[in-house]
């Protein structure tokens, strides 16, 4: 049987900068073809061999379900395979949303929505984009955390690649098994520190899948360019090892040389398979590997660590946005990080760079503004011999203080940033203390998911008597305190990585430089207006995120060009409109 499906579109759905046939240079600027039930439109043909008939309905990349038009049903052997009704994409979304809303349990909503990704990709992304504020807490934090904990139990169709210790020597073959040849963004985890939920082993896969769904929905990276990967080296989570439905290798974690060799093979295989411009995002690795892997690969690969650098950029954006409320500059603040892991030290480092840059002072001097507290208390010089390398630059000559309230009493920070991964650390006493001497204390409770947040938004406002300027990593509803309503900004790296990734892709960047994160942070902070500040809202609504991602993408790309790290030449004259024109749209295409 002839299996030719001619999909016709004035421009490809792809942002394929390597392939001149589909090059954005020719297609960029064209408007995307609109979905319509009408047949007769003039098309610039773009033909591709894909499936027809039953295979077409079963291929989520091309399936439109009941939205296939009468003509498409005739031409592509679909007649009789669908009920007679022809629905628009909008009507399909209405129906799905109605179903999603009917579930009381968020995990059920997650399963339902993620199922759609495996059935009808464009419908999934249109749903996500059009209802981002409602669905982000489902496909992302906090629900994705629960989904990872129960990933084996809710497992349906596999998505992404699983690479295990057993695959040493054949990682490249595994990458070849992935059907899409033009991968541009990979998110990889080894599952050892999933959000603040700890070691979830192979079941951490929910995170790369969720993050990449956001790369597409929020940042416009086309789905076929995204690849979620989990590296399974075992897990130390006994509950999972004892669970008959656990999906991973059933043994304790393997580290050392075997781990390092697998990671090295993986990184090389990515570069050999997809070229040096494939962006690899490290996600939710434990501290002991996260810093090491970033240091090892960042000078020779296009990589970044989202928990260190993405989180840093988003928190910096929030702090910059808060300055009009507190007055002064970053250097006028005294920062206390509660939690000194990837997020804490990552943000501390980026703030240091920014303070040094703004004040034209040395990095060492900027560091005097920044203190860390970890599970043992204040990070001090007297502890230097036992401190992990990433904490050492922030060890101060101070007496050892173990209790957080006492640390605050002593240091009197103006900003307190929680990255502990442990819920409830900002107790009433802690919040009362910081607001006892500070008129507008900055309080960020960044740990995820919601259950691990250092305090709730309500606690923050209540215990500081409405004084604090608050942001959280996971979403919280607005809080009303003494008649005033505050909108809670979500300081989550989801504001940064989709746009940053877009910037890397459109510029053909070959490295991710710290200055690109600074540019992304400044671009995000610029989105905050007086209206936001009136509600003490430090981050814009996610409903505006695609526009924001385009700005972040343009700012990141501009920085990559400035630093000589961009390879896409000539440089587009208007990076913002170029970024926008490259963004994937999930509107249905018509097939001829
Ligand atoms: O996924 C999120 O919500 C933010 C993040 O990277 C983490 O908490 O590890
Ligand atoms: Mg993370």
UniProtKB/TrEMBL annotation:
<feature type="active site" description="Proton donor">
    <location>
        <position position="140"/>
    </location>
</feature>
<dbReference type="Pfam" id="PF00390">
    <property type="entry name" value="malic"/>
</dbReference>
<keyword id="KW-0479">Metal-binding</keyword>
<dbReference type="GO" id="GO:0006108">
    <property type="term" value="P:malate metabolic process"/>
</dbReference>
<feature type="binding site">
    <location>
        <position position="307"/>
    </location>
    <ligand>
        <name>a divalent metal cation</name>
    </ligand>
</feature>
<dbReference type="GO" id="GO:0051287">
    <property type="term" value="F:NAD binding"/>
</dbReference>
<dbReference type="InterPro" id="IPR037062">
    <property type="entry name" value="Malic_N_dom_sf"/>
</dbReference>
<feature type="binding site">
    <location>
        <position position="448"/>
    </location>
    <ligand>
        <name>(S)-malate</name>
    </ligand>
</feature>
<dbReference type="InterPro" id="IPR001891">
    <property type="entry name" value="Malic_OxRdtase"/>
</dbReference>
<dbReference type="InterPro" id="IPR015884">
    <property type="entry name" value="Malic_enzyme_CS"/>
</dbReference>
<feature type="coiled-coil region">
    <location>
        <begin position="86"/>
        <end position="120"/>
    </location>
</feature>
<feature type="binding site">
    <location>
        <position position="193"/>
    </location>
    <ligand>
        <name>(S)-malate</name>
    </ligand>
</feature>
<dbReference type="GO" id="GO:0009507">
    <property type="term" value="C:chloroplast"/>
</dbReference>
<dbReference type="GO" id="GO:0004473">
    <property type="term" value="F:malate dehydrogenase (decarboxylating) (NADP+) activity"/>
</dbReference>
<keyword id="KW-0560">Oxidoreductase</keyword>
<feature type="binding site">
    <location>
        <position position="283"/>
    </location>
    <ligand>
        <name>a divalent metal cation</name>
    </ligand>
</feature>
<feature type="domain" description="Malic enzyme N-terminal">
    <location>
        <begin position="117"/>
        <end position="298"/>
    </location>
</feature>
<feature type="active site" description="Proton acceptor">
    <location>
        <position position="211"/>
    </location>
</feature>
<feature type="binding site">
    <location>
        <position position="492"/>
    </location>
    <ligand>
        <name>(S)-malate</name>
    </ligand>
</feature>
<feature type="domain" description="Malic enzyme NAD-binding">
    <location>
        <begin position="308"/>
        <end position="561"/>
    </location>
</feature>
<comment type="similarity">
    <text>Belongs to the malic enzymes family.</text>
</comment>
<dbReference type="InterPro" id="IPR036291">
    <property type="entry name" value="NAD(P)-bd_dom_sf"/>
</dbReference>
<dbReference type="GO" id="GO:0046872">
    <property type="term" value="F:metal ion binding"/>
</dbReference>
<dbReference type="InterPro" id="IPR046346">
    <property type="entry name" value="Aminoacid_DH-like_N_sf"/>
</dbReference>
<dbReference type="InterPro" id="IPR012301">
    <property type="entry name" value="Malic_N_dom"/>
</dbReference>
<protein>
    <recommendedName>
        <fullName>Malic enzyme</fullName>
    </recommendedName>
</protein>
<dbReference type="Pfam" id="PF03949">
    <property type="entry name" value="Malic_M"/>
</dbReference>
<feature type="binding site">
    <location>
        <position position="284"/>
    </location>
    <ligand>
        <name>a divalent metal cation</name>
    </ligand>
</feature>
<dbReference type="InterPro" id="IPR012302">
    <property type="entry name" value="Malic_NAD-bd"/>
</dbReference>
<keyword id="KW-0175">Coiled coil</keyword>
């Amino acid at each position: 049987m002839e299996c030719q499906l001619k999909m016709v579109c004035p421009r490809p759905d792809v942002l394929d900068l390597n392939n001149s046939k589909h090059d954005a240079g020719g297609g960029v600027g064209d408007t995307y073809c609109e979905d319509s039930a009408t047949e007769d439109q003039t098309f610039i043909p773009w033909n591709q061999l894909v499936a027809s008939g039953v295979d077409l309905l079963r291929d989520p990349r091309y399936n439109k379900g009941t939205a296939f038009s009468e003509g498409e049903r005739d031409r592509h052997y679909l007649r009789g395979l669908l009920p007679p009704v022809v629905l628009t994409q909008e009507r399909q979304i209405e129906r799905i949303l109605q179903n999603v809303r009917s579930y009381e349990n968020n995990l059920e909503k997650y399963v339902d929505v993620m199922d759609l990704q495996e059935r009808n990709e464009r419908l999934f992304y249109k749903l996500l984009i059009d209802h981002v504020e409602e669905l982000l807490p489902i496909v992302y934090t906090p629900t994705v955390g629960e989904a990872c904990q129960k990933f084996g139990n809710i497992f349906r169709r596999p998505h992404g690649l699983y690479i295990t210790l057993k695959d040493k020597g054949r990682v490249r073959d595994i990458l070849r098994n992935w059907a899409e040849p033009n991968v541009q963004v990979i998110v990889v985890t080894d599952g050892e520190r999933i959000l603040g939920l700890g070691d979830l082993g192979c079941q951490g896969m929910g995170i790369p899948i969720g993050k990449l769904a956001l790369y597409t929905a929020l940042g416009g990276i086309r789905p076929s360019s995204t690849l979620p990967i989990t590296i399974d080296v075992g897990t130390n989570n006994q509950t999972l090892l004892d669970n008959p439905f656990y999906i991973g290798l059933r043994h304790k974690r393997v580290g050392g040389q075997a781990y390092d060799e697998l990671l090295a093979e993986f990184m090389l295989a990515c570069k050999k398979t997809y070229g040096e411009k494939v962006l690899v995002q490290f996600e939710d690795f434990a501290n002991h590997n996260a810093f090491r892997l970033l240091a090892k690969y960042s000078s020779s690969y296009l990589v970044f660590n989202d928990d260190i650098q993405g989180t840093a950029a988003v928190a910096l954006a929030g702090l910059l946005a808060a300055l009009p409320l507190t007055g002064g500059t970053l250097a006028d603040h005294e920062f206390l990080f509660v939690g000194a892991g990837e997020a804490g030290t990552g943000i501390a480092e980026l703030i240091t760079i920014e303070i040094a840059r703004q004040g034209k002072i040395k990095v060492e001097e900027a560091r005097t503004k920044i203190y860390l507290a970890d599970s043992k208390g204040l990070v001090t010089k007297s502890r230097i011999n036992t401190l992990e390398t990433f904490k050492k630059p922030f060890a101060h000559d101070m007496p050892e203080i173990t209790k957080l309230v006492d640390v605050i009493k002593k240091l009197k920070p103006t900003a307190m940033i929680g990255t502990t991964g442990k819920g409830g650390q900002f107790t009433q006493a802690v919040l009362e203390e910081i607001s006892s001497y500070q008129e507008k204390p900055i309080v960020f409770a960044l740990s995820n998911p919601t259950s691990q947040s250092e305090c709730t938004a309500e606690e923050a406002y209540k215990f500081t008597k409405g004084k604090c300027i608050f942001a959280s990593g996971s979403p919280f509803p607005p809080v009303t305190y003494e008649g005033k309503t505050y909108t809670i900004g979500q300081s989550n790296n989801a504001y940064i990585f989709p746009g940053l990734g877009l910037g890397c892709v459109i510029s053909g960047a070959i490295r991710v430089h710290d200055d690109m994160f600074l540019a992304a942070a400044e671009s995000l902070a610029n989105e905050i207006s007086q209206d936001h500040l009136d509600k003490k809202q430090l981050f814009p609504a996610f409903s505006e995120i695609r526009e924001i991602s385009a700005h972040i993408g343009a700012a990141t790309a501009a920085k990559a060009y400035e630093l000589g790290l961009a390879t896409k030449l000539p440089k587009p004259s208007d990076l913002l409109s170029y970024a926008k024109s490259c963004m994937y749209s999930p509107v249905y295409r018509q097939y001829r």
